[in-house]
Amino acid sequence: MTNSHPKVSFDLKQPVQFLALGLGSGLAPRAPGTFGTLAAIPFFLLLAMLTPLHYMIAVIVMSLAGIYICGKAAADVGVHDHPAIVWDEFIGFFITMFMVPVSWQSVLTGFILFRLFDILKPWPISFIDKKMSGGFGIMLDDIIAGVFALIIMQLIF
Question: For residue 105, what are the domain limits?
């Protein structure tokens, strides 16, 4: 399957690429990060049933796995942080929603805040996005965007 980059081909049959592409949500022709974040919502609702400690452990494990997943998928197609790679958006949204009461209002607010930080990339997110490479770099800017959004979410909710 191809994304908006015609020379780049992903294979959803490969488990790492399937996960990196947010179960295929990153292949949306426009705004793949937004679609990736939307695809993360049902998984957040499942995670929200966990205790805060188990939620945090799950997100840490998924973040560490994401370093490999995003790095491998990027290497497979030869494009650092290809827009279709949205596992990092999943993690950023999960961080945004940590210990936030679940309601449609909180999910919508978290979605909007995370997308704003991810798109606008205020410092230091923009610095990390430009200076860091590999799976760690792909993950870190979204982790920080998630932390910024989490701080605001905690103030609101």
Answer: 15-156
